[in-house]
Amino acid sequence: MLDKLQSQFESGRTFTRSDLHYVVDRSHFPKAFWNLYPMNQDYYHELNPFFVSTLYTEQLLGSAEVYTCRDGLYDFGTFLLKNQTFIRKNPFLFLIPEGFECLIPDGMKDKFATWQISQSRSVTPADADRVILFGLLCEDYSGNLEYLEKRLLKLTKDLKTKSVDVVLGSRNNFVYQSDENEVYALQATSLIAKIFKDYNIRFISLGDYLKLTHLRNAYVYDLKIDNFFVSDSFQNFLAASKGATINLFSTQKPQDSVFDMRLSFFHTLHVTPMKSDGKLFADLLLLKKLGNNGGIYDRLRTYQRALNKSRFS
Asked: Which residue range is the domain that position 52 belongs to?
């Protein structure tokens, strides 16, 4: 594993590098992928950050050996089921988010490691000069209103600053779209305005957010409830590079890290060994053989919701 990581790091050959961007024809990406905008925007680092579930041919998948997977649990699970035979036969190393180990069977553990991000400098909500709420106004991203209210009320208990910027995008749910999402967007916006009514709250556009420069004492609270649809965000990468503290990033280096790579002056990517149990793989493989794609979604969703319930109960 270390040899692959070092070789990839030294080559810097990634699909997001400007001279290699053409290798992947993004017009072939599934429609659902574009619903992840702006989180799915490309950015560069030497370990090839990419949404591997968008790689539409084995030839394209095989054109790199190391991938830092930015996909969500659902897309990565379907990708793995589709490409498991090809992956077993080739010298890949996939760096997957913590929590995805449930998908990896023992016979494929040597193809995977996990990634985490830590911040060398961070502020707590109590110490921050400003707080920035960022997210998408759909239940798939921000969670149901009950969980959202619990999380935001907990945040306000720690705040001393009265400066709160809110950056929200409106989206349909990523899989099952309905008119109910418009109701959710209105209710979530009203909930945020109510919870922060005693603060100097400012709703700003994504463009204005990206232009912010002085973020060293800012605390960014990403409303993302879990990694089911997306595990890595361009916006968080950019804000962390400007010195902001991201609520989803750790403040400590993992003790079992085997490879560390600085992403900026302020945050570092760590590669850690697999802690696989693969407890979902057999169930998902059976559902795939039965042609029950809806069952795959439901099985993964049930698993994720159980994790969320334990976190927010």
From this structure: 2-119+271-312
HEC profile of the chain: CHHHHHHHHHHCCCCCCHHHHHHCCHHHCCHHHHCCCCCCCCCCCCCCEECHHHCCCHHHHCCCCEEEECECHHHHHHHHHHHHHHHHHCCCEEEEECCHHHHCCHHHHHHEEEEEEEECCCCCCCCCCEEEEEEEECHHHHCCHHHHHHHHHHHHHHCCCCEEEEEEEECCCCCCCCCHHHHHHHHHHHHHHHHCCCCEEEECCHHHHHHCCCCCCEEEEECCCCCCCECCCHHHHHHHHCCCEECCCECCCCCCCCEEEECCCCEEEEEECCCCCCCCHHHHHHHHHCCCHHHHHHHHHHHHHHHHHHHHC
The reply to whether 206 and 103 lie within a common domain is: no
The answer to pTM > 0.70 is yes
Give per-residue pLDDT as tens, 101-144: 999 988 899 999 999 999 998 999 999 999 999 998 888 899 99
248-273 tens-digit pLDDT: 999 999 999 999 999 999 999 999 99
Q: Are 235 and 301 part of one and the same domain?
A: no
